[in-house]
Design goal:
about 325 residues; alpha/beta; six-stranded mixed sheet; four-stranded parallel sheet; 11 helices; about 30% helix; about 15% strand
Length: about 325
């Protein structure tokens, strides 16, 4: 059915005029998920306005530190030792992104990793909008069992050859994005585009390098002290309602693992004018969790109190359009 709809929009006169003129489908593999982690490989598939592949590019990147979970991405210290530094590939990477919408699966993560790498070398990546294929699949109402890339690939019959290899993940996503884009065009769906805000300054915490080439130095999770945040200046407007916008002053709580570091999610919420709550009460406006059936104390209380629950990807979309207080 999706291919039929794609055929229906083959005429230039039927293609939505507001759609972007080109896309850069991106995947990065990293040393971990924290703000001080580094990119170790990157791939870009450049697509034209209708999702057709123009070219692709791939590079390893020397992170100048332990490569992290080798059992996931397969890249050892020995393999990365002779790779270019990010500063060496920044210009070529930028040329691949220039003037295009960045497309990724859970795009907020890829964008944040890219933005931090460019901030480290005191540059800004030339991309101003991103599109998350998780959000697009929701807009299209695709019947996926979960939000994994492998599920999106299987839905469109795309064969994944090397999961967690940047080049193959980018290829798979490009092939799955094309029919998604055409289905959206056929139905006149507004693409879930979000602004990419580059970092303007950066400072790293020192991370010891590992010379042995193994992965014993990788920290699956790192402890961080709690930070005292300033009080939210806006009154609590109540609970979030499905289909509506978040509003400044709403109390947001988080539960469980997130693909984006929790601290970064909390920072984005605070910047948007939301109150980050550490527990669930009857005053909590929204709970963000990727596993609502986990049975954690927060999810149990949220169900008891009737607190709305959304996943991380949906929350990321909501953060892009928070209603000002007083409106």
């Amino acid at each position: 059915m999706l291919e039929d709809r794609a055929t229906a929009v083959s005429s230039p006169t039927q293609w939505p005029a507001a759609y972007p003129k080109g896309y850069a489908v991106v995947d990065v593999e990293t040393t971990g998920l924290a703000r001080d982690d580094r990119i170790i490989s990157a791939a870009v598939y450049r697509l034209d306005a209708r999702g057709e592949v123009e070219d692709h590019w791939y590079t390893l990147v020397n992170p100048e530190r332990d490569p992290g979970p080798v059992w996931i991405h397969g890249l050892t210290s020995e393999m990365l030792a002779g790779a270019p530094l990010f500063a060496d590939v920044a210009e070529e990477f930028a040329a691949r992104l220039d003037g295009r919408v960045l497309v990724a699966h859970n795009a907020v993560f890829d964008w944040q990793m890219i933005a931090r790498e460019y901030a480290r070398v005191r540059r800004e990546p030339p991309v101003r909008q991103r599109l998350c294929t998780i959000a697009l699949s929701k807009e299209l109402g695709l019947p996926l069992p979960n939000h994994k890339l492998e599920s999106l690939a299987a839905h469109f019959g795309v064969v994944q050859q090397r999961a967690h290899h940047a080049l193959d993940d980018a290829r798979v996503l490009a092939e799955a994005f094309r029919p998604s884009l055409r289905a959206a065009a056929a139905d006149g769906v507004r693409l879930p585009l979000l602004e990419c805000r580059p970092l303007t300054e950066w400072s790293d915490r020192p991370v010891p390098r590992q010379s042995s080439g193994g992965y014993g130095g990788y920290r699956a999770s790192s402890w961080r002290p709690s930070r005292k945040r300033p009080a939210c200046p806006y009154p609590n407007p109540g609970r979030y309602e499905d289909g509506k916008r978040l509003k400044q002053g709403m109390r947001v709580a988080f539960s469980g693992d997130t693909s984006t570091e929790r601290e970064l999610l909390e920072d984005r919420a605070v910047e948007a004018g939301l109150h980050v709550a550490t527990s669930i009460s009857r005053l909590t406006s929204l709970l963000v969790t990727n596993d609502p059936e986990s049975g954690t104390s927060k999810t149990v209380k949220a169900r008891q109190y009737g607190t709305p629950i959304v996943d991380e990807a949906a929350f990321g979309q909501l953060l892009g359009d928070v209603e000002p207080a007083g409106e």
